[in-house]
Each structure stands twice: as structure tokens, then as C-alpha cells.
Amino acid sequence: MKENKKVPTFSPPIPDYKANAIQSMGNGLLNKVVLLFEKPFWENGGKFYFANISSSIKGRGEMFLWQTIPESRVLTTYLAGSSANLNLPDELIVEKAMHILSSIFPQQCPRAPLKYKVTKYQDDEMAFGSGSYMSLRTEMKHYEELTKPLISPKSQKNTVYFAGEHTSERYGGSLQGAWLSGLRVAADMANEILGISFVSCEDIEIIDENDNDEILSMDRP
Ligand SMILES: Cc1cc2nc3c(=O)[nH]c(=O)nc-3n(C[C@H](O)[C@H](O)[C@H](O)COP(=O)(O)OP(=O)(O)OC[C@H]3O[C@@H](n4cnc5c(N)ncnc54)[C@H](O)[C@@H]3O)c2cc1C
Question: Which CATH class is domain 30-123?
């Protein structure tokens, strides 16, 4: 991704510290296989999850987790890491999925789904992957460097801001991280443009009070 000619370029170029921080991050891959069936052949009462454990280390990221939502005719599974970078045609991936399903539900499983969708985030020009992760080269300072706005040489003001899950030191790779980073940038821009002091988002903590609800609280008023 980092060497790909189709990614956005900056003029003037981004500073070395930021380029190094980008280079230090891992770029992960998690693809989805979504299968629509004529009718559910699994337990259809509530959220339903099941797992498939590969017999080989190489295949451990391949269709390991399956899930559905209540009353749906859709099953979803995942292809992670090197197993996600399958250059197989979609038909073969779906065949593999059906093979796993027929071994779990030998009586009920149909031969094929009605429809399917296999994501290829690695080839998506708006993504080139599916999220950041801490690589062996990532240091905590890199998050700060990824977050730092760029100053215009002309006006000496911050003109380019950076949000996204990859800028979140605490909740990287997640919706929480993406959302909080958006709040941070909105507050920083308001400070810069309007001169209004907004509460920093750095003190927001996501507290998992129980299994179902996540609430936000702030350390200081
Ligand atoms: C299969 C899968 C399952 C996941 N499950 C979970 C989960 O259960 N819980 C969880 O918390 N997180 C999950 N995540 C992670 C979560 O989806 C991401 O962390 C989050 O969406 C990242 O948000 P973002 O705003 O940083 O980036 P994105 O959502 O990728 O947003 C970036 C946006 O920028 C746009 N863009 C890119 N390049 C350009 C360009 N050149 N010009 C204009 N626009 C551009 C893209 O189209 C995109 O809309 C999952 C991710 C995947 C792939």
C-alpha cells in the first residue's frame, strides 16, 4: 500500500517523521464472505456464532468465525491475514465455505447459497487493506506522529488534519478508535478555526459496563 502509486500524494511532501510513522504501522487484512440462503439451516433464535478450527497453521485465518443475525438468511465468515489474501476466484472460496458448512450441518446444509459476496479489501483503491495493526516496528510515538496536523508553510496554521482508526493509540483497528479520532479532529479544527476551546477527547474512556452496552464517560468535566 505504502508504495502504491494510486494512493494520495502530498505537495509539499509529508514530513519524514510522518512518512516513517506510516511505514512503521502494519496494514492488516480481514475479508468477509457473505452467503445468502433460501432459508436458515442453523439455530435462528438469536445472535448465532460458531467456529471452524483449521487443521493446519497456514489455514488458521480461513473461515474461522461464522456469524449471523437473528431472523436472517445470511451467514458471514472471515478470511484473515495471509488466508485473506487468497487469489482464488470467488466461486472456489464459496465452495470452500460450503464444504465447511456441510461438515458442520451435514443434514440441513444446501449445496450452494442463493447469492454471495466476497470482499477483496486488498484490491480496493479506497482501502488497500482492512485496518492498521501494531507491527514489530510500531512505537507509541508513531501514533502521536500520525495524529499531528500539517502546518501550512504560508499561513503557519494547521491545514491538514489526520483522523482514522490508525491514529488511535488506545482503540486502533476499531470503530471506537475511528469515531474518537473524528471527535479529536473536529475539536482541533474548532480550536484552530474558531478559537473555541473544546474539551480534549483524549480523556474519553470507553467503559464496557456490561456485555451489551458501551457507554462513554469522561475523566474530567
Ligand atoms: C471485515 C471487518 C470487520 C470489522 N469488524 C469490526 C468490529 O466488529 N468492531 C470494530 O470496532 N471494528 C471492526 N472493524 C474495523 C472498523 O471497521 C474500522 O476500524 C473502521 O471502519 C475504520 O474507520 P476509519 O474511518 O478509520 O476508516 P474507513 O472506514 O476505512 O474510512 C476511510 C474512508 O476514506 C475513504 N477514502 C479512502 N481513500 C480516499 C481518497 N483517496 N479520497 C476520498 N476518500 C477516500 C474510503 O472510501 C472510506 O470511506 C472491522 C473491519 C473489517 C474490514
Answer: alpha beta
- Does the Cβ of 132 fall within 6 Å of ligand 1? no
User: pTM for this one?
Assistant: 0.84
42 CA distance to ligand 1 middle (Å): 30
Which atom of ligand 1 lies closest to the CA of 125?
38
First-to-last CA distance in the chain? 41
Domain boundaries, the chain: 30-123, 134-218
- The reply to whether ligand 1 has any atom less than 6 angstroms from the CB of 30 is yes
Q: What is the DSSP letter of 148?
A: P
What ligand 1 atom has the least distance to the C-alpha of 131?
19
For ligand 1, atom 51, which residue shows the shortest CA distance? 130
pLDDT digits (tens, 9 = 90+) for 117-137: 999 999 998 988 999 999 999
Tell me the HSE value of 201 on the side-chain side, using a 13 A CA sphere: 25
Residue 172 has pLDDT above 80, yes or no: yes
**Residue owning the nearest CA to atom 30 of ligand 1:** 127
pLDDT digits over 77-91, tens only?
999 998 988 889 999
The reported pLDDT for the residue numbered 201 is 57
Listed in sequence order, the DSSP H helices in the chain are 16-24, 90-104, 140-147, 175-194
